[in-house]
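thought: fold this chain, then report.
action: predict
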Amino acid sequence: MPVAIDFSDFMSALADLGRAERTDAEMQARVAVIVNDLHALETLSLATLTEFVIRHPDAVPVLATCAGLTQEQLKNQLSHRLQTSNWKLLARTRPTELLAVLEEQFDLVRRVSEQLNKEWTFADVLLERYLWSRRTATSAVGQGRTVEDEVEAVVKALQLPFQPRTRYAGRRSETAPCDLAIPAGGKSAQIVVAMKGFNSTGSKLSDAVREILEMADVRLPSQYVYVVIDGIGWKNGQADLRRIFELWENRTIDGLYTLAHLPQFQADLTAAALRLDLLPSATVEHPKDAS
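observation:
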């Protein structure tokens, strides 16, 4: 992606990731179905909730929120106690164990019952939102996943092999972290991507900048390094954002994008993959410059 916009224009392209998540119509519809089906249960018990998640595996993280668990916290708990964070798999193959953990450790049945029977006031809603807004670190992880999902969708659409969240080897046999490596991490990496979405500032954002700087320092001349960032948290970390932008200006990295620039990212990624013979040129139309 050629540097065709200035720093202020790039910063203005940063989107509010939290707003996009709150207006997810598909998720709202899914939660509405789950709540209606819960109300339809004749009794609420460990046994009926176990049967419920067998029929509705997607309900597991929704039910967990009643016990105060965010999605990331749920995954961590399941990984620690049941050796996998895949709640859909657990709901299908080990539902009794899954619900037993949530009941024994987090009093799930009582908490779900309280939430279903509570007459919510506007003050209650404001309090819940305030308490969840204070979980900034976990919220940042969720926002990062939004960027990761969008980028991975581009890579999958091109049918490129990749390895997520790994390290790759570059100059001086040193390694650096990356969120996605094509076709794989380690010495096999030919294209690496950083994907960082934050609606808030803090240690997660600082760690992201450090990782991107490491990626730029280690990369070989034959390797491509792309960075996709988004979220209004970067606007409060302008000094860090400018350091990344300067890597792009100086051609130390090969591309810098927000989610609004994904068409350009796809064009650049396709061109790089063709040069590296990672895509069969006969089956891929050479992309035109999206800028």
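thought: worth noting. The longest helix spans residues 136-157.
final: tokens above.
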